[in-house]
Amino acid sequence: MGAMSVRTPSSEPSEPSVASQSSAAHRAGFACFVGRPNAGKSTLTNALVGQKVAITADQPQTTRHTVRGIVHRPDAQLILVDTPGLHKPRTLLGERLNDVVRTTWAEVDVIGFCLPANEKLGPGDRFIAKELAAIKKTPKIAIVTKTDLVEGKALAEQLIAIDQLGRELGFEWAEIVPVSAVADKQVDLLADLLVPLLPEGPALYPEGDLTDEPEQVMIAELIREAALEGVRDELPHSIAVVVEEMIPREDRPADKPLLDIHAFVYIERPSQKGIVIGPKGKRLKDVGIKSRKQIEALLGTPVFLDLHVKVAKDWQRDPRQLRKLGF
User: Fold this and answer.
1) Rounded CA gap, 222 and 287, in Å?
2) Which residues contact 316 (CB under 8 A, 6 or more apart)?
3) What's the Rg (C-alpha) of the chain?
4) In this predicted model, what pLDDT tens digit does every residue of 54-67 receive, in sequence order?
5) What is the pTM of this model?
């Protein structure tokens, strides 16, 4: 086995001198994190951006939309494109999600392949690595996530296995980086390693932007995340949320605005309605309270959230419904 480049704290690049920092050109570009569902992609995006922009959940397949997180640095702007997990599709929705993934990979400047430290490489990882091997020009970084869950020996074995995987498929990783987004270990180092792989150029987004997701999509995702909590086993992916309208409440004083948000939670079967609403409407009320807090934090304004549950029969398999629900 040849030399393997793994970035651990001891091998962090030394601080560049002030002179070299000022003469270095500004870089800006796109990176995307790929990996099996639930490999820690969204959590890593949030850790890098420093704010919650991609939804995270214990249930795989929760990220439906391309959520971009934007990392602003003095020397660079890193735009993170979070794709849905690539998987063997079983439904029309699955096929559409996979198409989104491949299109994204071909357009970004660098790809980070997230592999959890606490799970042995499996067929799903090989499936993705093979797809990555076919994309020749884009540099690929292996990001070993969830390192807080394993001991040193297990981590070392995983790093070697990942290095081997690249070799077997005929490509070399630009870097192999162990990180823990939860424990905030090596997250900054990861950004330091992604930046040099971006093209030189000015910032692509204004300083204050953290994501270019339309607000309505982000709000729908926050409601969906809250609606999935506690019912993941019963309704893993059969919940979709559409924000129908957002209107400022009339007759409110300027210093006390209120935003009315009307949203529909769609499920596939009438039998699922009771699960989402809960006894005497308690679950839906909890979903409203939890997501409203997050929406208010996101928008910085008080919100009145009006939630309704609707049945959209077998929406995951129906092209017309998929279009209506934004896929």
Assistant:
1) 10
2) 91, 92, 93, 237, 238, 268, 322
3) 21
4) 555 555 444 444 55
5) 0.60
